[in-house]
Amino acid sequence: MSQLSKVFISHFTVRYAETDRMGYLYYGHYASYFEVARVNALKELGVRYRDLEDDGYLLPVRTFEVNYKRPAHYDDDLEIRTTIREFNGIKILFYFETYRSSELLNTARVELVFVKKSTLRPCEAPENAKEILIQATTRP
Question: In the prediction, which pLDDT does 3 show?
Fold first, then answer.
């Protein structure tokens, strides 16, 4: 398992409804931001969630970890940089860094597992996705 050198970029603007009483982006909203960022990364590689689900595969989250350094506020423009750190045929490890301009706000790790929809048991990724993810996590 090796690291992916490609960084996938997603942009978000913090909405007022996403802030808490302290005026910070409520921490729970990062799960949605990271989901959008990883779906965008996979789509950029040519792997679509919808196609996986239509083919009988699910990708539930196994672990979700965030290290908060600084808060985001209403109307902040955020950039989430996503990399795929590992893929072993069954599990994918995504790594995220959230920035406001050049300021690092947090880092996160999210691990997903391929699951067969019919059995709800972990399984190998479908061949087309597997090839793309193996290629994406292998340095040239």
Answer: 44
CATH code matching the domain that covers 8-136, chosen among 1.25.40.10, 3.40.50.150, 3.10.129.10, 3.40.50.720: 3.10.129.10
SS3 91: strand
Q: For residue 75, which of 16, 11, 10 has the smallest C-alpha distance?
A: 16
Return the pLDDT at 5.
61
**What ranges in the chain are assigned the alpha helix state H?**
29-45, 49-54, 127-136
Contact (Cβ atoms closer than 8 angstroms) between residue 112 and residue 59: yes
**Tens digits of residue pLDDT in 8-41:** 999 999 999 999 999 999 999 999 999 999 999 9
Domain locations in the chain as residue ranges: 8-136
